[in-house]
Specification:
The complex is a heterodimer of chains A (529) and B (168). Chain A is of the alpha+beta class and 529 residues long. Chain A has 8 helices and 30 strands. Helix content of chain A is 16%, strand content 34%. In chain A, helix 5 packs antiparallel against helix 6 and helix 6 runs antiparallel to helix 7. With 168 residues, chain B is an all-alpha fold. Classes of the chains: A alpha+beta (529), B mainly alpha (168).
Chain lengths: 529, 168
């Protein structure tokens, strides 16, 4: 079959609902506005659930946390134990919960351990076979687990991780779980009505007794996601009513009063037209640390770390020491942070995941579903100084750390079975030192003239459009000298740029990377359109 | 004042209806091509229209067809970013539990689904819809030169896949 015919097959898939029904959904009266948007989100959720029904527990990844009150031990004494099978691991009161899926099992297997080695079955966590575990969160005293099949929801709580009991959300008859989070002050959950009459938000100080908190919620619950943190529950909205901030965040410690956490464009390297995909936010050492992938117009995405003492005033620090492998950055883009743990010393532990990708400059390269990646474990207490705890050649599926019976810390991690782990010696490094190389060329390959031009442009701390054009012209000339006479570029009003040089696939990418590093890379970081 | 606003709203709605009705078929086809297989095309259109109409009525847009197509591409890319952690996580676990794996879309389309949304958009608009690269560039929000490069790379990828299939 020709690919044109395949496109026709794709284009005609599904049963169209027609323009009138579509507009009815879009332009529903305000009271049903949640319904319209909810259908959209629900449509995606249902599609994903269809994609793989029994593995919904995978949604845990990236949102688990370890809000333990550690007694004894310290971060440097963590003993890492590799799990024998891929699993999601959550640390909470008394130990660890792991969730695994096995080919022979009919649904998730949920087990508890207080030493990270031996695992015991849990009681009270059986669900209807259609339901999958959606999330597990914990405070220092309570575990909370939520399961859903996109039409109904069920929740269980536990104080010891072994014996679980039903939790009732008031008036949740037709609600399906949307998002849940925990913080030292309590838990919050959001759900949508399966018949499309809006959303409901609940708050609980203890994870057991819940009350509705919809009226004080700062936006449409279905247009965002709750995030757990030690400083409070954060709601990350995908709506951006205020375009001056590239991400919309609100935080509460009591379920009623919210403060807006405004990360302004000016505090990042993002600039106008950027968008931040917030990946993690945590409260560590009396400050907020946020990690986000910044997408700019016609530039590679980059990971940026922001810190704030109060959640209101933020400073940014770009380029943490992971995600950009020197000499391979053109072929390797940052993946995402697998998880986090706040440890006894107030450090933040996280596992950035670097994946190989394909695609041209400026394209979103991470949409390479078949790519496998490598994981590392890094620790920081301030977002600036980083310590590499363990380097693993393979995917870190999840990890957690907890206190064992003898008061020492134990951690464990899981990975995909076909990759072999390679443990390196711990390595201290500074973010500013480790991330000076962003592109494929090594420093000795760079042209001193191009570097001098960038130095001159950046000397006064401001990059004008004319100066950016000079840099871009340098890139163009460089490409032409490499034998690409058609090389040309276009500078956008947003401050980004796009460029092309050949109609032949993949030809010229390494030359482009070199010319870009020679003339543009550092200027673009400081661009001020 | 209220009556005037109501009248304006009715006119806007009528204008939006006329534009969406006229473009619905081609926009839905485009959404079906650009979006991953597990995205319902009407849900994609829904999401796009919610975003677009929240800002302005379509009657105020100079070229609603191009504008909405570009919005579809951006919307799909944005949704993929939001979902990627979940998606890959699920993929990982699925591969762990089921080494053989399952195909979520017809195997005939696996080569097209291996392309990125922007690549499918460029190739579809140029090779199927017959747009010029200048028009494609306008829709996708890139330069005409980059559209050519993107189309060329996408064709090469498909060619590579076909070559692999031929060798099996």
């Amino acid at each position: 079959m020709k690919y044109e015919e395949k496109f026709e097959m794709m284009a005609n898939r599904g049963q169209p609902i027609g323009p009138i029904a579509l507009l009815d959904r879009v332009q529903a009266p305000p009271a049903a506005a949640h319904t319209a948007q909810g259908r959209r989100f629900r449509g995606l959720a249902v599609a994903m659930a269809t994609f793989v029904v029994v593995l919904v527990g995978g949604l845990l990844l990236g949102w688990f946390r370890a809000p333990l009150e550690f007694i004894g031990g310290d971060d440097s004494s963590i003993e890492w134990i590799e799990m024998t099978e891929p699993a999601f691991v959550v640390a909470g009161p008394g130990g660890l919960i792991r969730i695994t899926y096995r080919a022979e099992s009919n649904g998730p297997i949920i087990e508890f351990s207080d030493d990270a080695r031996s695992w015991a079955p849990t009681e009270g966590l059986s669900f209807d076979t259609r339901m999958g575990v959606r999330e597990v969160v914990a405070t220092s005293t309570t575990w909370l687990l939520v399961a859903s099949d996109n039409t109904t929801m069920a929740a269980r709580a536990s104080s010891d991780g072994i014996t679980w009991f039903d939790v009732v959300f008031p008036d949740a008859l037709n609600d399906a779980f949307e998002s849940i989070a925990g913080s030292p002050g309590g838990f919050m959950a959001t759900a949508y009505d399966v018949f499309g009459v809006g959303s409901t938000v609940w708050w609980s100080a203890d994870g057991i007794n819940w009350a509705e908190a919809t009226d004080t919620f700062p936006g449409d619950p279905q247009a965002g996601r709750l995030l757990s943190s030690e400083g409070g529950i954060v709601w990350r909205s995908y709506d951006r009513p205020d375009q001056s901030s590239p991400v919309t965040l609100f935080m509460t410690t009591d379920g009623t009063n919210w403060i807006e956490m405004r990360i302004p464009s000016s505090s990042s390297s993002s600039g106008v037209g950027s968008e931040i995909d917030l990946q993690l936010i945590e409260y560590v050492g009396n400050q907020w640390i946020a990690f986000g992938q910044v997408y700019r117009v016609d530039a590679d995405p980059e990971l940026v770390v922001w810190t704030s003492p109060d959640g209101i005033g933020w400073t940014s620090q770009v380029h943490p020491p992971f995600g950009k492998e020197p000499g391979h950055a053109v072929e390797v883009s940052l993946g995402w942070l697998v998880g986090r743990n706040s440890l006894v010393s107030g450090s933040l532990l996280l596992a950035p995941w670097t994946i190989p990708v394909s695609g041209g400059v400026g394209e979103t390269r991470r949409e390479n579903g078949s790519a496998t990646g490598t994981g590392e474990l890094w620790m920081t207490s301030d977002g600036r100084t980083w310590h590499r705890e363990l380097n693993i050649s393979g995917m870190i599926n999840s990890y957690a750390a907890t206190v064992t019976d003898d008061g020492s810390l134990a951690g464990l991690w899981a990975r995909v079975p076909e990759s072999d782990p390679v443990a390196d010696a711990p390595d201290d490094t500074s973010a500013s030192v480790a991330t000076t190389i962003q592109f494929q060329p090594s420093p000795q390959d760079l042209d001193p003239a191009g570097q001098a031009l960038q130095d001159a442009i950046l000397a006064d701390g401001v990059v004008t459009r004319e100066e950016f054009e000079q840099a871009a012209e340098g890139w163009k000339t460089c490409m032409q000298e490499f034998g690409f006479p058609d090389a040309d570029y276009e500078i956008h009003a947003s401050g980004g740029w796009s460029r092309g040089w050949s109609t032949d696939p993949y030809e010229g990418e390494s030359e482009d990377a070199l010319c870009d590093a020679n003339y543009v890379t550092r200027v673009l970081d400081g661009v001020n359109p | 004042m209220v009556a005037v606003e109501k009248e304006a709203n009715i006119l806007e709605r009528q204008s939006d209806e006329a534009i969406v009705s006229g473009l619905y078929g081609e926009l839905r086809r485009f959404a079906a091509v650009v979006a991953p297989w597990d995205f319902d095309p009407d849900d994609v259109l829904h999401g796009v229209l919610v975003n677009v109409l929240d800002k302005r009525p379509l009657g105020l847009v100079e070229d609603p067809g191009a504008y909405l197509r570009r919005s579809i591409v951006n919307y799909v890319k944005s949704e993929l970013r939001r979902l990627r952690t979940r998606r890959l996580t699920i993929d990982l676990l699925k591969r762990s539990a089921d080494p053989v794996g399952t195909v979520a879309y017809p195997s005939d389309l696996s080569d097209l689904m291996g392309l990125r949304p922007a690549e499918r958009a460029v190739l579809y608009l140029h090779d199927v819809e017959g747009m010029s690269f200048d028009e494609v560039a306008e829709v996708v929000g890139i330069t005409a030169g980059n559209a050519r490069v993107t189309a060329s790379r996408a064709r090469q990828k498909l060619k590579d896949v076909f070559s692999e299939e031929d060798h099996r």
